[in-house]
Amino acid sequence: MLSVIKDYILEEVKSADFIAIQADETTDVSTHCQLVLVLRYIDANSNIQERFFEFITIQNATDTIATALQERLSTILSHGLKAKLITQTYDGASVMRGATGGVQRKIMDVYENAHYVHCYAHQLNLIMQQATSRIPRIGTFFSDLAGFSAFFSRSPKLTTVLDQMVAHRLPRASTTRWNFHSRAVNTVYEHKDDLLMCFQTNFDPPTVREAGGFVRMLEDEAFCFFLALFHKIMPNVDMLFSQLQKRNIDPVFIKALVQRFTDSMITIR
To answer: Which domain holds residue 192?
Structure first.
């Protein structure tokens, strides 16, 4: 089945005038590093297509990533079709974006039309991370917020208490996935009273002391202010993040999205 699908994708690619590649590293459950390869093109019916093509097992090194991509591209685009590759899209890691030794430079040395584009959704995550880290009180707020998940996830007993009294798990924080922060903000904001009851459960003495810190946090005026503020902000961030991952976007569409987001932030302010 996989070979049939790949053959179908290759036939579509051959008939397309131009193609783009999207790639990102991921680690599977066995801790093996893999490269996800996605092909983007316009098919014969003028529809934009984004096709997952393959997981490529790699070693975590620049030359290996570039070599793996070049090997796959050589099977997708024969020698006379190299000019069809016009875009390569990755995250903003230096190993990928490097202008002299990065993967995008090594690919462009072979496919001269393959201009590099930094993933817009990833840029949004980086902007949010940088913006919040520049304001100490906001950085402290999100650091404190991450402590909620860490507290309940460290033992099955605490997780059981959370499931019984709140019935919602708290997602772990991630610097590159701001929707995780959004879910954490919403869960703590919407289940604040239930969480207070959780932290007042009869735990062992060390856990009681730590739980007391979370109780004081949930009753702190500054923490509650930021919690309510980001409960209003985060839905707009989620919407922008989701829109930036659509396959039929273009620069004009993105500009309009960013303007709507800016207007929403001004309204909240």
So the answer is: 123-268
Please, are residues 109 and 102 in contact by the beta-carbon 8 Å criterion? Answer: no
Find tokens 């004009």 and name the residue: 252
Write the burial class of residue 69 (CB in 10 Å: 0-12 exposed, 13-18 middle, 19+ buried). buried
Greatest Cα pair distance, the chain, in angstroms, is 72
Q: Which pair of structure tokens corresponds to residue 209?
A: 């002391």
CA atoms within 13 A on the CB side of 141: 24
With b for 16 or more beta-carbon neighbours within 10 A and e for fewer, the 36-56 pattern comes to ebbbbbeeeeeeebebebbeb
CB 97 within 8 A of CB 104: yes
40 shares its domain with 100: yes
For residue 170, which of 188, 158, 155 has the smallest C-alpha distance?
188
8 Å CB contact between 226 and 141: yes
3 state SS of 78: coil
Q: Is 146 in the same domain as 62? A: no
12, 47 in Cβ contact below 8 A? no
For the chain, which ranges sit under pLDDT 50?
A: none
Report pLDDT for 224.
94
Which of 118, 139, 167 finishes a domain? 118
Residue 88 sits in a domain whose CATH number is: 3.30.420
Exposure of 8 by Cβ count < 10 A (0-12 exposed, 13-18 middle, 19+ buried)?
A: exposed
The dihedral over CA atoms of 27, 118, 244, 20, expressed in degrees to the nearest 10, equals -80
What's the total number of domains in the chain? Answer: 2
